[in-house]
Design brief:
The chain is α/β, with parallel strands linked by helices and 258 residues long. It has helices at 24-39, 50-55, 58-65, 80-88, 106-115, 132-139, 143-156, 169-174, 190-193, 198-201, 207-213, 222-225, 238-256; strands at 12-15, 45-48, 69-76, 97-101, 120-124, 161-163, 181-184, 217-220. The chain contains 13 helices and eight strands. Substrate binds at residues 47, 128, 188, 221-222.
Length: 258
């Protein structure tokens, strides 16, 4: 489902994939909910992955109770019957977004679609951690060819959007028959880029670049989660980092009228 218009906060997904510390699972839940409470009124979406598996789907309700929209980043990938079962277990929790692997196949994707009618389903194409050599070894094609193939599968399965890196945005935008929303990870805000060396810069994209290239939503984790006090004008807290990133998104939207 291609989106017509999104407000700047609707375009930002906070990847809150925290790791457990000495507090264990209970400590992880507390840290996630504390983070949610600190940024809830910014209007961004809260993406959780591993924490859902260890804390349980009730974490979605806890986040909803704190005013957060939730992306359940489960990357479902199994036989069709199991995909349908997984989807049925999420019905009562109603996450706003759910990710599933396009490689599960059209039948499996449709099982989830048939079960979750109100959740926006985002198909994950080629993981951003894979390079060309690995993509060839696994899928026998280039990354761009694989992403386009999975995008067509996602559309046939009536999914709402695709998760893909910024490098493939131009390819996807050229195919106007695709009506999927484009959701892009591996984003670094401009204010955070100077923290990374030149090699890192070559592999990432700023919010402005991604949106101008066609991204509907951008997914950001570490730059926001690791915001801390310093003497160089960086945001001091995740909330401040979100607000500064939203300013970049507003500038991007204004510059391309998208």
């Amino acid at each position: 489902m291609k989106v017509d218009f999104l407000e700047p906060p609707d375009r930002l997904i906070l990847s809150a994939d925290l790791k457990p510390d000495e507090g264990g699972v209970n400590g992880l839940r507390r840290r996630i909910l504390a983070l949610a409470e600190s940024v809830a009124d910014t209007g961004v979406t809260f993406k959780i992955n591993s924490a859902l598996r260890v804390c349980g789907y009730s974490l979605i309700k806890d986040l909803h109770d704190r005013g957060m929209k939730v992306m359940a980043d489960l990357k479902l990938n199994d036989i069709p019957e199991t995909m349908g079962t997984d989807a049925s277990m999420l019905v009562e929790y109603r996450p706003e977004f759910l990710t599933l692997m396009c490689s599960a196949g059209i039948d499996g994707l449709k099982k989830v679609r048939d079960t979750l009618r109100t959740t926006q389903l985002l198909g994950v194409s080629i993981l951003t951690s894979l390079d060309e050599e690995e993509c060839q070894a696994i899928f026998s094609c280039s990354i761009k060819a694989g992403v386009l193939h999975f995008a067509r599968m996602a559309q046939l399965a009536d999914l709402d959007g695709l998760v893909s890196s910024g490098a493939e945005l131009a390819v996807l935008k050229r195919h106007q028959e695709l009506t999927l929303s484009l959701n892009t990870p591996a984003i670094r805000p401009q204010w955070a880029m100077i923290r990374w060396d030149d090699q890192e810069k070559a592999r990432v994209m700023t919010p402005k670049q991604a949106i101008q290239d066609g991204a509907d939503r951008i997914i950001i984790g570490r730059p926001i989660l690791e915001a801390k006090t310093n003497n160089h004008g960086f945001p001091q807290t995740p909330r401040e980092a979100i607000e500064k990133t939203l300013d970049e998104i507003r500038e991007a939207v204004a510059s391309c009228d998208c």
